[in-house]
Amino acid sequence: MKISTKGRYALRMFLDLAEHKDDGYIALKDIAARQGISKKYLEQIIPSLNGSGLLKTNRGYQGGYMLGVPPDQCSVGMILRLTEGSIAPIACLDASPISCEKMSSCITLPFWKGLNKVINDYVDGVTLQDLLDQHRECGIDNYQI
After folding, report:
1. Tens place of pLDDT for every residue, the chain, 145 residues?
2. Residues 125/75, Cβ–Cβ less than 8 Å
3. 65: β partners
């Protein structure tokens, strides 16, 4: 499994919104400037996030984006699944129930299931607030991923 630029940039965008959650709606150009990401690229990411409830939008003057949920209720897993689709390490784990023709004889399936569980438990167990708190504790000025 490899997280794409889309997933990494979406996470950075959400972290920026979480960090500036008290500033109201944030213009995409401001997020882009702070994160060193092309505004045009962020505009391409937004459609995959709309309708999720994680992101609020406001058009027009004073428009922009803000978190739709508190940072401590938004996991990294939620964001990655919106942008990446599946985060399973192998394709046969994408379906539920598993529909692989070799499932009954696959000697490696328990390993892949275990890895999938570890990945999901980890990304679902880390929230935006956790990342911001960790960032503040370390005193780092740049949380780029």
Report:
1. 789 999 999 999 999 999 999 999 999 999 999 999 999 999 999 999 988 999 999 988 888 999 999 999 999 999 999 999 889 998 888 877 777 778 788 899 999 999 999 999 999 999 999 999 998 888 655 555 5
2. yes
3. 26, 57
CB 35 within 8 A of CB 48: no
Q: CA 70, CA 19: separation in Å to the nearest integer?
A: 11
Q: Tell me which residue has tokens 């607030």.
A: 129
Non-local (6+) Cβ contacts of 84 within 8 A are 3, 4, 6, 7
Single-letter amino acid, residue 94? D
Q: Tell which residue, 37, 6, 42, 15, has the closest CA to residue 140.
A: 15
Write out the two tokens for 100. 């692989």
| Amino acid present at 139 | G
Sign of the Cα torsion 48, 82, 14, 56 reads: positive
Going by C-alpha positions, the residue among 43, 60, 74, 81 that lies closest to residue 31 is 43
Q: Is the pTM of this model over 0.85?
A: yes
At 93 the three-state DSSP class reads helix
